[in-house]
Amino acid sequence: MKAKGKVWSMFMLLLITVVVAAGCGKADNNGGTSNTGGNAAGNTEGTSTATKDNKDIVIAINANFITLDPHNASDTHSISGGRTMYEGLMGFDENMQITPVLAASHTISEDGLVYTFTLQENVKFHDGTDFNAEAVKVNIARIQDEKNNLRLRKSFAKVAKVETPDAKTVVFTLSEPYNAFLNKVAMAGMISPKALQESGADIAKKPVGTGPFKLKEWVQGDRLVVVKNENYWQQGLPKVDSVTFKPVPENGSRIAMLKTGEADFIYPMPTEQVSEVEGQEGIAIETIDSTIVRYVTLNTMKKPYDDVKVRQAINYAINKEAYIKVVKSGLGAKLDSTMSSKTQYYSQQTGYDYDVAKAKALLAEAGYPDGFEAEIWGENDSETIKGMQFIQQQLALVGIKLEVKSMEGGTLSDQINSAKTPEEAKIQMWYVSWSPSSGDADGATRGLFSSEMFPPAGSNTAYYKNDNVDKWIADANKSIDPEEAKGIYANIQKTIWEEAPWAFMGVDQIISGKRTYLEGVKVYPDGSINILNAEVK
Amino acid sequence: MSNNSSVMGAGSPLSEEVLAPAKTKGRFGAFIRKFCKQRMALVATCFIILLFLVGIFGPFLTPYNPDEPNYDALMTGPSAAHWAGTDEYGRDILSRLMDGTRLTLAVSLSAVMIAAVFGTIFGLLSGYYGGWLDRLIMRGSDVLFSFPDLLLAIGIVAILGPGLSNVVIAVAVFGTPSFARIIRSVTLSAKETLFVEAARSMGAKNRRIIWRHIFPETISSIIVNVSMKIGGAILAAASLSFLGMGAKTTEPDWGAMLSMGRDYLSIAPHIVYFPGIAIFLTVLAFNLVGDGLRDALDPKTKN
Amino acid sequence: MGRYALQRLLGVIPLLFVVSVLVFMFIHLIPGDPARLIAGKDATLEEIQGIQEQLGLNLPLWKQYINYMGDLLSGNLGNSIRSGMPVTDMLESRVMPTLWLTFLSMGWALVIGLLIGVISAVYRNKWPDYAGTLTAISGMSIPGFWLGLVLIQIFSVELGWFPTGGVDSWKSYILPSITLGAGIMSMLARYSRSSMLETMREDYIRTGRAKGLREYVVIGRHALRNSLIQVVTVAGLQFGFLLGGSVMVETVFSIPGLGRLLVDSILFRDYTVIQALLLMFATQFILINLIVDLLYGVLNPKIRYSS
């Protein structure tokens, strides 16, 4: 009896182990076979969803839409959602270049102060009203109205007046030249003035624009469904009947939806799993370089980072190739400037190749032959933590003992911005990413390197101050000649690169996954999704 | 007890327990004897002893340096060189598990002990004295309770900042009210028993009644709860890691290993498989021991 | 009994008041400025101050509290700080998924848990007991998010039986409720087992046996009824936990429920939404507790309520 009981209990423990092992083993099989080109998982769904017999597509994304008000959206997904239904005078193409949309053409005066747009004709809002110069004026007035306090207001702060000489001409007069103005114009979707008047603040829930799709329903937190605008002004578009956006925050779940065919398109595709689904039947992966740069700011007003040698040493001590391999699963590029190659006026820099000996030598010259102890801050998502852990491992090799402090976004922002002066700042290193919201060089430079932008006013957490750079930023902004602006930005990038207020890490790749029958859904370098040309084949 | 045994059918499910010899050679002896009859609990105890040994000596026994990355051997599966494979930085997972045993046990044990001490005190006072004290304590625990567990933990970590001790506090705080409530409900029942009424009528002091008569009644509940909460605390700490508020993401805490590895579930399942097994078996073992202790400690079988 | 119930019901009001104050303090203690989080990383200081003014966040805390209470008492939950939508709208669309998930999880957990508990107790130290205990303990030993991911991997991706998430049909709820209910089921199974064992040792059960009552009568009518008291406590407590704590499951299975809304709101310090949610959870929880307490009296006549 006693012996029997003992055998039993041992057996039970074993059984549980086996059950758990079976669960994991299954996943293992799947991973193994798909890598060798088999389709163990493909079998079940391959037959039913390798083709699609309707024109209703589902796109799974990683977060909720916050608002559909195109003048008030600050997160990429809300911007994408808005753009399915709204269009601006200008827009972006897939390389973030400015292209005309509702404006057929435009001219800029010699002094860079007067922008004249000629509008497309025969464009109607979803509610049937005409799109014309007056509508543009109403929209700009709404954006500029202080009472509304919309996110886009600062982009139009330099607009002194808007005139409408006739129904298809709009003239903007600026108070001073503004190099990035067209980028800002491209951000402003045009809302139907009639709908604006009728819905008031509710316009964020009931969008009425000129875009290729109309709102069907928006269930907060669950789905956004848009349907084809039958009267869309561009002939032959759109080619799908409806598009459903679903927020699916968990990476594993989002991938599962792509595999089962519940989603036709997913973004972002987690880098870790690209190798698994790549080559799987019915699934295609698309990658493009993004405008999202990743870096570590080094507080240049704090010891020991106030010594440029220490900052350069840190740059030499980090193996960027290994960073991309380990943290980005091989999908990404080295950051070789202060901005991504996809950002306006990018100029490539060289140097800081991985060199531990040189890093140690520089540290010794700076008076830290044995390294020092330091602290790195970052947000608490797994990707950021992964990056900080990698940096910790790398810097350990040159004697810098790094403590990783991951904080929740709000807490971190508080920690950074509670310092009112550079002297109060506790920040040492911050591992973070940045993407200029409208792809312009000013957006990728001013907030990060201008000495007016020390926290809490901006994001210059390196407390970087260089009088030349300050002056150049202002000059570039007022420059109306693109070549001149390009030259100025090249100087800025070169100077900052040499002074190394950052540890330059990498440029993200935009990775999306889709079913092979789907064409034309594009993720732009800033992470926004464009569905204008979506098509089921 | 033995009086009743005669009326029991031989085939009754309870016969074994009821027929158990009632002679006692001191409390401890009886406890040991009873506990040893719980075979699953015994196996589990051995497992936990092993865990503690690993917790104490683990850092000296690891086959590799648990923090040493190897970027040329990322996510390799289990092999002769790496029994549990390597993780996303090429670190040896077995070494990390051994090294992390101490951290994992320390966090959960200290959190549960804190919760048990406060929960028991509050539960006893509340149940025994009733009246305004009861209302105060119970409403207090209601208030704590009315914040969902994880939210409370998230809030505490958000307010106090991330860190080991703050995770312990967070897990302890949301463990306390449930202890208090359960101890209170046992106290309420115990208060009504004949021997407590007898003691009271004989003029025994409240403190003595609580300590000598009611507290022993609650021991089994405390133990069941502690055993259950240790497992729960390990899981809660893992959940905090899942939400990015874990103890220390860079240290080999099992929960952190599990949640950091989850993005690799479908390509390198061993990264989540082994920490998962470790957590699973540990929680299982604590629960089995709890069960065994519960039966062995039950005050009623001592009479 | 009736008087006790009324007394408890009235006691809810001051409790809710205390909760509302605590909730308010609690969220303002969490570091982080919603205005800054809404405005985004590249916002100017002026822009941030504009938002603060617009939302009344620049007022002294006591004034903010008065405003908030004033709104609350007039039944107005306000607008979300982050999206500007009325909070009531946001809650409305999120309530049903969470309720469904909760009830389904609790439903199967209660049935299976009690069943396992009773069988384990009756066949104590026999193989059904071992099997039951191990099933129960396995359920509570697996981290929820991990179980969810594994279930998706097996039943959605490989077998294609259930959707990976969402709330489009009843099928969507199967995997999430298994994941969410597993822990509760285990807990209930263990509690019902232990309290069954405890009650089966009570005098009146032995008396029942001595009187020659059949075993199933003893167990079903007497032992089970009396051990329900602990089980009800635990179930009630877990109900509150389920309602609010389904964050993990809602994240893994992309269910647009209250748990996820709460976490999202905390991340963005969306004070109005957090306040509304916490108050809602608190009210629910307090009411559930009240019901549990009153059920004590019904199920265990031995407990006296003294006023």
UniProtKB/TrEMBL annotation, chain A:
Q: Does the keyword Signal apply?
A: yes
Which InterPro entries does the entry mention? Peptide/Ni-bd (IPR030678), SBP_5 (IPR039424), SBP_5_dom (IPR000914)
- GO molecular function annotation: peptide transmembrane transporter activity
Keyword set, alphabetical order: Periplasm, Signal, Transport
Q: Where in the cell is it found?
A: Periplasm
Q: Where is this region: Disordered?
A: 29-49
Q: Which GO terms describe its biological process?
A: dipeptide transport
Q: Which Gene3D superfamilies match?
A: Dipeptide-binding Protein, Domain 1, Dipeptide-binding Protein, Domain 3, Periplasmic binding protein-like II
Occurrences of domain Solute-binding protein family (ranges): 98-451
Q: What GO cellular-component annotations does this UniProt entry give? A: ATP-binding cassette (ABC) transporter complex; outer membrane-bounded periplasmic space
- The residues the entry assigns to the signal sequence are 1-21
Where mainly found? periplasm
Question: What is the documented function of this protein?
Answer: Part of the ABC transporter complex GsiABCD involved in glutathione import. Binds glutathione.
- Family stated for the protein in its record: Belongs to the bacterial solute-binding protein 5 family.
From the Swiss-Prot or TrEMBL record, give the protein name. Answer: Glutathione-binding protein GsiB
TrEMBL record, chain B:
> Care to name a GO molecular-function term for this sequence?
dipeptide transmembrane transporter activity
What is the membrane topology noted in the UniProt record heading this document?
A: Multi-pass membrane protein
Q: Looking at the record's lineage, which domain of life comes first?
A: Bacteria
Keyword vocabulary terms for this entry: Cell membrane, Membrane, Transmembrane, Transmembrane helix, Transport
PROSITE patterns recorded: ABC_TM1
- Identify the GO cellular component terms for this protein: plasma membrane
Q: Please state the protein's primary subcellular location.
A: membrane
Q: What is this protein called?
A: Glutathione transport system permease protein GsiD
> Could you tell me which species this protein originates from?
Paenibacillus endophyticus
Automatic annotation (TrEMBL), chain C:
List, alphabetically, the Gene3D superfamilies matched.
MetI-like
Which CDD domains would you find in this protein's record? TM_PBP2 (cd06261)
Main subcellular localisation: membrane
**Matching PROSITE patterns, A to Z?**
ABC_TM1
Q: Which InterPro entries match?
A: BPD_transp_1_N, MetI-like, MetI-like_sf
Q: Name the membrane topology term.
A: Multi-pass membrane protein
> One biological process GO term for this chain?
transmembrane transport
Q: Which UniProt keywords apply?
A: Cell membrane, Membrane, Transmembrane, Transmembrane helix, Transport
Where is the protein localized?
Answer: Cell membrane
Q: Which domain of life is it from?
A: Bacteria
Segments traversing the membrane: 9-30, 99-123, 130-152, 172-191, 231-253, 273-299
| Domain ABC transmembrane type-1, residue spans | 95-296
Q: Which GO terms describe its cellular component?
A: plasma membrane
Do you know which Pfam families this protein is assigned to? Answer: BPD_transp_1, BPD_transp_1_N
Family, similarity comment: Belongs to the binding-protein-dependent transport system permease family.
* Protein purpose: Part of the ABC transporter complex GsiABCD involved in glutathione import. Probably responsible for the translocation of the substrate across the membrane.
User: What name is this protein filed under?
Assistant: Glutathione transport system permease protein GsiC
Q: Which organism is it from?
A: Paenibacillus endophyticus
